[in-house]
Amino acid sequence: xxxxxxxxxxxxxxxxxxxxxxxxxxxxxxxxxxxxxxxxxxxxxxxxxxxxxxxxxxxxxxxxxxxxxxxxxxxxxxxxxxxxxxxxxxxxxxxxxxxxxxxxxxxxxxxxxxxxxxxxxxxxx
Length: 125
Known about the structure:
By secondary structure, this protein is mostly helical. The chain contains 6 helices and no strands. The protein has helices spanning 2-9, 20-47, 53-65, 67-80, 96-106, 120-124. The longest helix has 28 residues, at 20-47.
């Protein structure tokens, strides 16, 4: 949970580097929260016979609220692998772009200092 909160503290920080663990823990917790909100929306709508608009609105608000931190941590993750944040535009290329960004996100950090800052693995230890 600390990794998730750390990304939220750096809400719109696009400079610097982010470790794999920081990026993937934020992504995991974000997905789990989205799934919980989706489940709650379906549960409220189906089981209780009530309108699920309030929960759906909550899910939308959550998605919009984490959009900027998601882009920021993803950009810092690209920086950690030695790439510019502009590589995120690959997502606009169907299938191939998403696969390339997944591979980039899974790669280990560049050792030492690169153009985007110190290696977060060595600076945190």
